[in-house]
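Let us practice reading a record.
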Amino acid sequence: SPGRGGPVICIGLLTGNSQPNALLKIRAAGIDPGLFDLGISAFGDNNASRDELYRDSIRKLESRYGRKVDAENVTLVGDTPLDIECAKSAGCGIVAVATGNYTSGQLAPLGPDLLCEKLPEAKAYLSAIMASG
């Protein structure tokens, strides 16, 4: 359990969008916003860069659980070069999904840990990460 130092799996959002716009986009994509822990999420209306979004979210996690969060225990999922660069800068994993404005051909040279055309393709990879947590 989290209080006893065991593994904790949290799903948050890091987005350059404001929180209201992010939630609108998530709903429009048919995704339940309840899937995400908004208490650890970081939004563009409060942070100027992707790196700041990451640091803000990690601070929230560390504050909540009272322990350090190591980057190697974090995996970001993103669809832009900025998302990949943020993950690499932070030292965490990155799954790139070519569902946004960028193609696989544009994202691949940036070296994500996994590149897929649609998010469901990442299910086995993400499941393996969570199982090893």
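A brief commentary: The CA atoms of residues 79 and 110 lie 12 Å apart.
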